[in-house]
Specification:
Enzyme class: oxidoreductase
Distance between the termini: 20 Å
Organism: Saccharolobus shibatae (strain ATCC 51178 / DSM 5389 / JCM 8931 / NBRC 15437 / B12) (Sulfolobus shibatae)
Keywords: FAD, Flavoprotein, NAD, Oxidoreductase
Catalytic activity: a quinone + NADH + H(+) = a quinol + NAD(+)
GO molecular function: NADH dehydrogenase (quinone) (non-electrogenic) activity
Oligomer: single chain
């Protein structure tokens, strides 16, 4: 099986993990760098250059994926066609603001392009963040530290609702202690100029940032793959439910019967399992594990390790180690670039 031609679409967390398992795989991505999202928040908080959040990452083929011909087993890109025997799709996520009235006109998605705009918000402005997940929580702390009046809205009855209730409570305490206005059970109905209309009333805002609305990339649907919210459906071995020679890993994939969390940790695990199953014919079940989760909220660090809430220097050390570990993996990938 090792002599098969394996192509990886996407050089994010899942893609680089897959490449490290099988360096002879062909890694395709339109960018030669990776974005470290937690560092994007730091770029905003500390007014750092955008390059601080980018890690240079080589790829075998620098090109945009246009479509995949599954019958002929070839990927069509802006740089030509690439044949494959096995395909791993790890194309990450996109943010869709179109579902909320007015969002595209009066809100800002959390994109690389919008980071500089967010940094330029006038000090003391009222900023409303929609989505109380990890990104929203860290972003709220960063903007509050920059002197903004910050509203953090979450549609559920607690922040980071996919984690333990105790952790949610502690995260909310940290934010409120820093002066963030946390509003729960607030579903957004419309975004207007200088106002957000929610089920909890109208909220005056100078700026609105979306830290929610993430889905798989549209190209997954365009490929004709079975999907949930543009996340391709896979079985417990991360095989596509449509083709047994195609695997999905990272934020662009979801279980047919169940849910795969969208996080860097889980994506790294998925890339490794998908590649092992693809090239070795193994049937290793993918069981996502969130080993440690740490948020940097302003100057505070708070984390969850084995359902135990931690904070302070230990949490900060874990956060730092996680990012350093990622950088190490990228450096290893850079040694395995092929001459295509």
């Amino acid at each position: 099986m090792q002599d098969e031609r394996v192509v990886i679409l996407g050089g994010g967390f899942a893609g680089i993990a897959a490449k490290l398992v099988y360096p002879n795989a062909i890694l395709v991505d339109e960018r030669d760098f990776m974005v470290v999202t937690p560092r994007l928040v730091e770029v905003i908080e500390k007014n750092l250059p955008l390059s601080y959040a980018l890690i240079h990452r080589k790829v075998d083929v620098k090109a945009k994926v246009l479509k995949v011909d599954f019958k002929e087993k070839k990927v069509i890109t802006t740089e030509g066609e690439i044949k494959f025997d096995k395909l791993i799709i790890a194309l990450g996520y996109e943010q869709d603001l179109s579902r909320i009235k007015g969002a595209e006109n009066y809100g800002k998605g959390f994109t690389l392009e919008n980071v500089e705009k967010i940094k330029s918000f006038k000090e003391g402005s009222i900023v409303t963040i929609l989505g109380g997940g990890a990104l929203g929580v860290e972003l709220a702390g960063a903007l509050r530290k920059r002197g903004h009046i910050v509203n953090l809205l979450e549609a559920e009855n607690r922040l980071v609702p996919y984690l333990t209730p105790d952790f949610s409570k502690e995260v909310q305490k940290v934010l409120e202690r820093q002066g963030v206005n946390v509003i729960l059970r607030a579903k957004v109905e419309e975004v207007k100029e200088n106002e957000v209309v929610t089920t909890q009333g109208r909220i005056r805002s100078d700026y609105v940032i979306f830290s929610a609305g993430f889905s798989g990339p549209k190209i997954v649907r365009e490929m004709g793959l079975s999907n949930k919210n543009n996340r391709m459906l896979v079985d417990k071995f991360l095989r596509s439910v449509d083709y047994d020679f195609v695997y999905g890993a990272g934020d662009c994939a979801n279980f047919r019967d169940g849910f795969i969390p969208q996080s860097a940790q889980v994506s790294l695990q998925a890339g490794e399992v998908a590649m092992n199953n693809a090239i070795k014919g193994e049937k290793v079940e993918f069981k996502p594990v969130q080993k440690a989760i740490v948020f940097k909220i302003g100057d505070d660090y708070i984390g969850l390790v084995k359902n135990t809430v931690i904070s302070g220097p230990i949490a900060a050390l874990i956060k730092s180690f996680a990012i350093s570990s990622l950088e190490g993996k990228v450096k290893k990938v850079n040694k395995f670039v092929l001459a295509i």
